[in-house]
Each structure stands twice: as structure tokens, then as C-alpha cells.
Amino acid sequence: MKQFTDSRLENVASNCSLDDGWIPGQLSLNLMFKTEHFWTGLKLGHRQRFRPARSKPQVSKGSGTEPTTSAVSVAAMCEAPLGTGQVEDQVEHLLEGRGSEVSTCDVGLDQSKPATLRKTVTYIVSAVIFNEQNQVLMVQEAKPDCYKQWYLPAGRVEVGENFEEALKREVKEEAGFDCEPITLLLIQEQGPQWIRFVFLARVTGGSIKPLSAADQESLQATWWDQQTALPLRGRDILQLIDCGLKYRQDPWHPVTRPVDLSCRHVVQRLVLVYTSAAGDLWILLVRAPVLHIPTAAAVRTHAVTWAANMVVQDAMPAVYYDHDVNTLGVFSLQHSGRQHGRTDGICFNTLVRLVPDPVRRNEDGEKLELASTNEPPLVENPRYLWHKVQKPSLREKLLEKLRTTSLLPLHSLY
What we know:
About 20% of the residues lie in helices and about 25% in strands. The protein is built from 9 helices and 14 strands. A hairpin with a 5-residue loop joins strand 8 (about 265-275) and strand 9 (about 280-285). The strands form 3 sheets. Strands 8, 9, 10, 11, 12 and 13 form a 6-stranded mixed sheet that branches. It has helices at about 10-15, 25-30, 35-45, 75, 85-95, 165-175, 235-250, 305-315, 390-405, and strands at about 120-130, 135-140, 150, 155, 175-190, 195-205, 220-225, 265-275, 280-285, 295, 325-335, 345-355, 385-390, 410. By secondary structure, it is α+β, with helices and mostly antiparallel strands.
């Protein structure tokens, strides 16, 4: 975990932990007083980009009668082998918000440890719940380090729970209500070791927790109109509340709830697309053991979405630094959690766009003129290929997603 030393939040950061959802130090500061910027970020999608020292990887040469990688034409790399129809069906399946078993991990597994709650990962659930007057449900903290401060109902996912079970338990313990999740609003992460899942939910029963029922979980609950002064544990929740209000008024992504499928690691499965000016669209695929869309393990030293960058580096190292790898959002996520240490992982099914870097420079730092291209960049690693989408319906659905970014946001707090 990075150390944060911003003096404006130093005192609060020293008193509150990550265990029940509060974002410490600099991370909370990054979200403070930026509601409009935050909302714009939700609409545009998260753009994750890290650039190590700019050095071109060496492309391996061929030998004997085999052509070198650079001699392999784009057309050859884009030819449609058997099985592409099934892959397009799988992509449509994910577009509908459903899941698919994780049978292989193509990149990064050697840098990743199996997800184990309380050991290698911490998952937080937070509930945004409104009444008919658009007042939001708040709970008053009972913990000595944040005593009498107010926050959204939130807490850690416990061993053996899935995310929705954890959400219902936390709301019942802290606020007194039974609830039902409506949709995930957004996901925030600090790498695979800390991920927060923010749900929009509704009350289905129970009664609000009074001060007379105070216990170690919370002192009491109340409905807050967001105008009355209330001492908050962290201002990061203001953006989450605003996000929930806006979703109620104008949902910007389909209802998205976790899919009950197990996974051992935290991984990103990516529908990685490249588009041409003419409206053609390609998807990056892995050839073996059967043709499939790539999956990469998240590593502790980077954002979860850095996994997409690792795939592009593996597939086309020579052109990687000339392109942006842009994770636009999440179609669906998969989690089970029933077997501790074996099913604590998550699979994020994501839409990723590969776009040419708008500014390219030569080794002397001089700007280069960009030549327009109607073909995807050359795939150098023979494990991969570009597949040109054949189904008109799938192509139109993906192009619409690219235009509107109507996906569940996945935000890195690094």
C-alpha cells in the first residue's frame, strides 16, 4: 500500500481504516470538491495509462524458411480461423451482462497470487439507498476512531459471502433495514488488493435503527437531505451519493449485478477492439488452447486495468508505445466466494479500446505526421490474432458501446 502524507487529511487518515470503505489520505482528497469532474469521468469511462521508460522492445527474428514477425502481413494475422463464430457468440453473451467460466489466464498469472480474503484481498461493499424524498440513508459510526461521524452503510465482505450477501448484512447491522440491491453504480480499486463495490439498493423491510439500539456496528441511522449539516467520516461519499441520484434520474449503464461464477484470481477478461474510420471493427483473440478472448491477471503493483496493457505489450510490443490502451468499463463481473481461498477471485469482463496515440515523436522528439490506417496494428506474437467482426448486429452493438460508454465504471484510485 502506498503511503499518503497530505497534511489536509493526515489526522483523519490516521484514525480511519480501509476495512469499511473509507478512502484515506490523498485518495480522498483527489475526490473532494470535484463532483462535476467526477461525473464527467463516469460518462467518459476510466482511461488507464502507465508509461515506463520509452524504449522499443526487440522483435524476435525468424529463422530458416520461416518469415520474420515483421514480414507477416496484417491480412494474415486477421484471417478468420475455425471458431470465430463461437467467439462472437461469447462476446454477445458478455454484452448482455452475463458471465463465462474462466478456464485459462493468458498473461500475468506468474505475477499474481490467488485471491484470499483477509490475506491477499479486501473487498468493500457500500450501499446508496434513497427514500421517496431523495434523502439518503446514513449511519453514525460506533468505532472509537470515528465515533459519531456519519457515513454510508459499508463494510468488508466476510469469508464465505458473495457481494450482495455482504451488502444486505451490512445494511441490516448498521441501519436496521432489509434491502435489495438494484445495480452496481461503480467500482473503485487500488489494485487487486483493495476493491470497493458501490451498490444502489432499496429498502424492502425492517425499521430504521434508533439510538437506543446502538451497538458496536453503529450508533444509529438516519435519512439525510444533504443540506442539513452532518459531520461526515469522509467526503468521498458525496460523489457516490451524487452518482446514485443521477443514476435514478437517467441510468447511464444497464443494470449490472454480480454473476455467481467462481474465479481463483482477480483477472480482467478483455474484449479488446480496434476500429477504422470506415466503421470496421476487430477483436483481439488468443489462438490456444482454443480460440478465445484474452484474460490477464491483475498484479499488486498496478491498477486492475493494467492487465489490459500487459496483454497489448505481449501481443504487439513494437507498437505498444504508439497506442493508448483504454479500459472503458465493465460489462459484468463474476464472483462466488463460497470456498475460502479458492473462489475469492473476481473476473471483470471489460470493453477495452486500442487507439493510436494522437501525438507521436521520433527519437529526436520531433512530432511525426500520422498516416491514417484502416487496419489494426501488426500482431507480432503468434499466440494472438485480430478477428474482424462479421456479425452486423455485434459490430453495431460494440460501436454503440464505444460511442456512449454505457458501461459500469471501473475507477482506479492510484
